[in-house]
Design a protein that fits this description.
Number of strands: 7
Distance between the termini: 34 Å
Oligomer: single chain
Order of helices and strands: HHEHEHHEEHEHHHEE
Radius of gyration: 17 Å
Structural class: alpha/beta
Shape: globular
Largest sheet: 7 strands, mixed
Strand order of the largest sheet: 3-2-1-4-5-7-6
């Protein structure tokens, strides 16, 4: 099945509201557990979260790693509005460790210029040109930067994509079911991601299927 691109940003208020109310506990917990399994439970330094959305993973990461300072970037004003609303309910100490930044890669400018950790979840499939993500990571990474990129995996047919929607999102609002289906069609195969990494000259990172619908790119920049 050929890739079908979708809009890069979630700009609709109805969209952002649906995502804010949806329960992504299972995949988000899986993402964070795999991070801890890969890099350990003790971590300090600067973290860049690309495409943070409503900051659910960002907040949980900050709770899990109290010695990290996190810059969380997203291009959607609507999604960041929900992130800011969620952040105000957190302890002041945690609020001070998270900086929410509105901007679209690769044009957003960040400080520090280098990060100890760069992560993202469900961003790659939104990009019309996936090279943007890998070049951005190279720009803000350094030798030893920990990379952790989770995303959807494109199924072999529209029929299987629809079956995954019914399996995991049958009770969700229609807008979420629509977006999930479109995102599956826009996702990349493992072979395509490996080609992207090779072109970016960061092919030392591993690419692994971690569920029937998710892929993980991880490792450290050399």
């Amino acid at each position: 099945m050929q890739r079908t691109i979708e809009p890069e940003l979630m700009l609709e208020e109805e969209q952002s509201q649906a995502y804010a109310l949806a329960d992504f506990t299972e995949p988000n917990t899986h993402f964070l557990n795999l991070f801890q399994k890969t890099f350990g439970s003790e971590l300090a330094g600067s973290v860049l979260d690309i495409g943070c959305g409503n900051a659910n993973i960002t907040l949980r990461f900050a709770q899990q790693y109290p010695n990290c300072q996190i810059d969380a970037v997203d291009g959607s004003t609507a999604m960041l509005s929900h992130a800011r609303q969620a952040l105000v309910y957190e302890p002041l100490e945690l609020q001070q460790r998270i900086c929410l930044i509105e901007g679209v890669i690769p044009n957003v400018e960040l400080t520090p210029k280098r990060y100890d950790v760069i992560m993202s979840n469900s961003v790659l499939h939104h990009l019309h040109n996936p090279a943007v993500l890998w070049e951005f990571i190279k720009s803000y990474g350094m030798k030893g930067t920990k990379i952790f990129i989770g995303d959807l995996l494109r199924p072999s047919s529209p029929k299987i994509a629809q079956e995954l929607v019914e399996l995991y999102a049958a009770s969700e609002p229609e807008i979420l079911k629509r977006d999930f289906y479109n995102s599956l069609l826009a996702a990349f195969k493992i072979s395509e991601i490996k080609e992207q990494l090779a072109a970016a000259q960061i092919d030392n990172l591993s690419v692994t299927q971690i569920s029937d619908r998710h892929v993980l790119v991880k490792g450290s920049l050399s």
